[in-house]
Amino acid sequence: MREQIVMASSVDEEEVHRHSDLMDSWWSPDGALWGLQLFNSVRIPFMAEELLASSGTKLTSKSLKGKKVLEVGCGGGVVTEEFAKLGAEVTGVDPSPLLIGLAKEHSKVDEVVAANKPTYLNTTIEEHSKLFPNHYDAVVASEVVEHVANLDVFLESCVSALKPGGKMFITSPNRTRLAQFCIMVLGALTIIPIHLMTYSKFRKPSEISAILERNNCRVDKVKGLFYLPFIHKLIWVFFNSVWYAMAATKQGHAT
Predict the structure, then answer these.
(1) How confident is the model at residue 243 (pLDDT cuts 50, 70, 90)?
(2) Between the CA atoms of 89, 20, 246 and 86, what dihedral angle is there, to the nearest 10 degrees?
(3) What pTM was computed for the model?
(4) What does DSSP assign to residue 153?
(5) How far is 226 from 128, CA to CA, in rounded Å?
(6) How far apart are CA 234 and CA 129, in angstroms?
């Protein structure tokens, strides 16, 4: 049974097409996906500090030097570039050839990124994890789990690419009625193209945690996020019923 799961695919082709259709607005500050850039103000420090096991340390272009980071479902590279700016050896994978092409082109724009260019690959996490098992210090899936066709396959493959002792990071909307209202109604008016989100595919933290634990990962932290629509700001909150960020550690010792 396990062999059948590993051979399956998590790619939802309709989701890939929908995101690829927005290629021209991916990096635009006024485009349909500008909310992805807004998220970086909170998700990047959270992930970097957890990876460094230090809180409050000022992040610099050398903070993650020597760390191998994989972003899964990287799209146009909005998160991937931020890890490159922090000095990480970062790889982005995505099943959309159009978005991988966009990410490669945009990596030339910022001189800091251009000096430490990410490696972009048009592939799936299933295929990549077979070629690079137990390879990365961190695997990032930010705003991705709510778009995959098979969550078990997706997370199993992500963990497979992670070194023992490495960190898995996930950010995603929660599947609650409050999240449905805030994201599908308020979010659609501000930062999220409504046709990109399907409420039934939102994942609860408990669902993610259960799959990670079955794959030998310990969930270390779950933090709530909330978007303030009138001032266009994301803040950390004590409840995770709208958005959440999760950090988990693959059990075992790094070699």
Answers:
(1) very high
(2) 30
(3) 0.92
(4) H
(5) 33
(6) 32
